[in-house]
Amino acid sequence: MVQTRRSTAVAASFPLTSPDSHPESSKRRRTALAGESDNGASTKEPPRRKKRTKTEDKPLTEDFPVRVSGSWKIGAHVSAAGGVENAVRNAAIVGANAFALFVKSQRKWDSAPLSAESVDAFKSRMQEFRYSPKHVLPHGSYLVNLGNPDEEKRQKSFNCFLDDLQRCEQLGLELYNFHPGSTVGQATKEESIALIAECINNAHKMTKYITTVIENMAGSGNVIGSQFSELKEIIGHVEDKTRVGVCLDTCHAFAAVRASFSVSQTFHRDFRDTTSQQKLDGISAFDTEVGLSYLKGLHLNDSKAALGSKKDRHENIGLGHIGISTFRHIVSDPRTQDIPLILETPTFEATEIWTKEISALNRLSLIDDSEVLEAELSLVNEITSLVRSHAAKKTEKASKTEKASKTEGPSKTRTRKRNTTEDQDHDSDCA
């Protein structure tokens, strides 16, 4: 077992509170907000509203969950709010041995460059918390569509894509995961696949070493990448095949199953082609059609939607249609060792759900076959209990917010609803 060390330097860089070093008196606050000086005279400049800051306590490193030393590197897509360096600490907080992050806002075309201080802090924390770059899988922007036949729009996507790759290299990271794109109904899939590969080739020439990792998709609309054959075709057009790979998303694979496939309720069984009657588990099917050497990571997500639904609806481990047995097979399969296995499951604003899921998956990777059924049931019950508790809290909070919003006006109501929306389908046609 490996336990993260406490660091005075890290603790010092994360103060527990953010007190105002220059507090005003109550009278001064009132007069300032009213636009008056102490003697009642009008001020020349309009008042500035004081920025609200969070002051909640952050856990000390000694309070972090124990990180299991194992062959399967299980983690989650954690927040990088406040700076990319915070993602490293957030991964340690949930007991992750791997993690994903956005290296800039995933919903903006342009972002400010990474500061030298942020880059240095990220690298320092990677060492402090003992994370390897090969176990970090940054996720690309949802805006990018490298398959768009419109040259101007595709160039805009490419610029955003390239910027992400360059940021990853600044941070010393080795992998970059992205959604391949869409035809937007204006090209054939073959044409869009060629455009995606062309963008990858150009990006490789403009970067040093980063590996571009294509994610399989759930299959809605005109999206590219829901079938292994499409991933294989993209890779076939890439010139430097040492710098391209695939991230398999279990929810997407479950949702994208073709009608010509007869598949059981689990990802690890019965990818059966009706023409050849060849029976393969999901990873073996990938190995046969694409090649295991291209498998660079997995997204571990159960599915709220049924098999073949083409809907990208993530569910907590063991609570969806895929089932916990599938994930036990994945985290005990030697072919998934030493690559990032990343949770993108709902947290209901409570990251301890990821802590529970990571712990459960680590236990499943080590369990004796004779204890499987009892252990699976126990772990599902633990996850279910925690998820229900936090889901109820979030529902209650949303209800209170909605009631408060009604008294504040319709514009604030719209904003708050948008901020609390879950289960957005990012497997739709891209820009």
Task: Kindly describe this structure.
It comes from Suillus plorans. This protein has one domain (61-419): Divalent-metal-dependent TIM barrel enzymes (TIM Barrel), CATH 3.20.20. The protein is 38% helix and 10% strand. The chain contains 13 helices and 12 strands. The chain has helices spanning 8-12, 26-33, 85-93, 116-128, 151-170, 189-205, 228-237, 250-255, 282-289, 324-330, 352-366, 372-408, 410-419; strands at 73-77, 98-100, 175-178, 211-215, 244-249, 261-262, 271-273, 279-280, 295-300, 302-303, 314-315, 340-343. Strands 2-1-12-9-5-4-3 form a 7-stranded parallel β-sheet. Strands 6-7-8 form a 3-stranded antiparallel β-sheet. A two-stranded antiparallel sheet has the order 10-11. Helix 11 runs antiparallel to helix 12. The chain is globular and about 50 Å long. Mean pLDDT is 80; it is low at 1-44, 50-56, 259-279 and 412-425.
**Rg, Cα atoms, Å:** 24 Å
Low-confidence stretches are: 1-44, 50-56, 259-279, 412-425
Q: Main sheet?
A: 7 strands, parallel
Largest beta sheet: strand ordering: 2-1-12-9-5-4-3
Mean pLDDT: 80
Range of helix content: 25-40%
Structural class: alpha/beta
Count the domains: 1
- State the CATH superfamily name: Divalent-metal-dependent TIM barrel enzymes
Give the SSE string. HHEHEHHEHEHEHEEEHEEEHEHHH
What is the name of the CATH topology?
Answer: TIM Barrel
Number of helices: 13
| Terminal residue distance | 46 Å
Assign an overall shape.
Answer: globular
What top-tier CATH class fits best? Alpha Beta
Number of strands: 12
